[in-house]
Amino acid sequence: MQSEIRNKLLDAFSKQAGDFVSGQQVADYLGCSRTAVWKHIEELKKDGYEVEAVRKKGYRILGTPGKVSESEIRMGLKTKTMGQAISYFETIDSTQKVAHMLANEGADEGTIVIAEEQIQGKGRMARNWHSPKYTGVWMSTILKPNIPLQRAPQLTLLAAVAVVQAIEEITDLSPLIKWPNDILVNGKKITGILTEMQAESDKINSIILGIGINVNQKREDFPEELQEKASSIYIETGKEHSRALIVQTVLEKLEALYNLYLTKGFMPIKLLWESYAISIGTEIIATTLHQVIKGKAIGITDEGVLLLQDDEGEIHSIYSADIHLSS
């Protein structure tokens, strides 16, 4: 109940977009007394919100705690599905693990699991994902698309486009995508995406979409072995950014693209993805579990599979691989 009141209170402030909200307006909106409103405002202050109170004008929020809590994300979120249910943790093993559990328990589509810190964050091919506290976006989203099994990889590409669009909107950066889902700025990785599926033999039950975005890390925050490969929005722009705003924007872009995908199919997503792709049309080296293939990336299929043409003209379908640009 307390959480519902908190969400409604922040929603009241959000609707005013920084203007004052009178105590009576808040009381009417929450269905409580003016005294109760004052108590709820005091609770917000204890949680790190900077609230200004002016006689005859009311209240307005001047600053937020800077976390990615449910309250922070809900305040100003403009989605109908994505992020409407939020499971927030200060510290967690892995958001993917909890999202799988929630999906098995019947969580609604659009539910997100988000944490300030992951201690067992994971990326593709069972690699660890460095997820230090209060610096990035460590989030998993539950999707439940009614699509054939073979189309599931398309959602990885969709998520990559959503993240690129969100970063473009918030910053002056121009990120690029390295197949299938690494997002690079100036050649260094700032985002990784991990897509996992819960399915039966002929039916997708859930897609768990894990997104890790390096937001406010400084170079020394990365392990030494990652400092030449990884970067953050802070490093590339020279200033800190609101992680909650990034989450909100990613969710809004994700919802718009997902709805487009469900109504118009993969083609619009494919065209967008290719417009951001760093590897299409260039010489690359693909290292799969079984072989190393060198050639030119000529595009992706309608299933999101990378097509690689080697020096002898043979076209290889790459389903999973490490991709490196050929020097």
Describe the 3D structure:
The chain is α+β, with helices and mostly antiparallel strands. Helix content is 32%, strand content 28%. It is built from nine helices and 14 strands. It has helices spanning 2-16, 23-30, 34-46, 70-74, 95-104, 154-170, 233-237, 243-264, 267-276, and strands at residues 50-54, 58-63, 86-92, 112-118, 136-143, 176-178, 182-185, 188-200, 203-214, 283-287, 292-300, 306-310, 315-318, 322-325. α2 packs across α3 (34-46) and α6 crosses α8 (243-264). The N and C termini lie far apart (59 Å). The model has no long low-confidence stretch (mean pLDDT 89).
Question: Roughly how much helix do the residues carry, as a percent range?
Answer: 25-40%
General shape: elongated
Total number of beta strands: 14
The biggest beta sheet reads: 7 strands, mixed
Main structural class = alpha+beta
**Overall pLDDT metric:** 89
Radius of gyration: 22 Å
Low-pLDDT parts are none
Number of helices: 9
Strand order of the largest sheet: 3-4-5-9-8-7-6
Order of helices and strands: HHHEEHEHEEHEEEEHHHEEEEE
| Proportion of residues in β-strands | 25-35%
What distance separates the N and C termini?
59 Å
